[in-house]
Amino acid sequence: MSASIRTHLLLMLALTFGASIHFARAPVQAAERKVGQFPALAVVQSVLQRGISREAVRNALGEPVGSGHARIPPSHLPLEIWYYEDIEIEDAAPIGGYVHLDLRQRILLVFFDGDNVEGFMWTSNTGEGEAKTK
After folding, report:
1. What DSSP character marks residue 53?
2. 88/92 Cα distance (integer angstroms)
3. Which tens digits make up the pLDDT trace of 86-107?
4. Contact, 88 vs 11, CB < 8 A?
5. 114: left (phi > 0), else alpha (psi -120 to 50), else beta?
6. What share of the chain is helix, strand, coil (3-state, %, to 5)?
7. What is the DSSP secondary structure assignment for residue 115, as one 8-state letter?
């Protein structure tokens, strides 16, 4: 698990369980169950057309939460990547001294060749995790 995902999960636990995480029998109540902002898929699919400008992407999707670079075969062109994600706790249940979490993470990568969109990729998954409450 990457450091970024671990950090997000710890943040999610803190947001979700707050002080109650220190007490095994405390009720689980979430003030906030989501970290990050994933753009609506309808917007992603309508806006992210090859060749549109970086500024048009920023106006439609907002600021990315991260960025990077890649060289993808077969062209191996240097591409800049903008990264959008959210992590959401769909369910949380205390079990013994642990809290069982059902998670969903969505990731959107937007690839730029210079100032224009070259392409994009998005993914979504549902996973499970546990956190010790003591």
Report:
1. B
2. 11
3. 888 877 788 887 887 777 888 9
4. no
5. left
6. 25, 45, 30
7. T
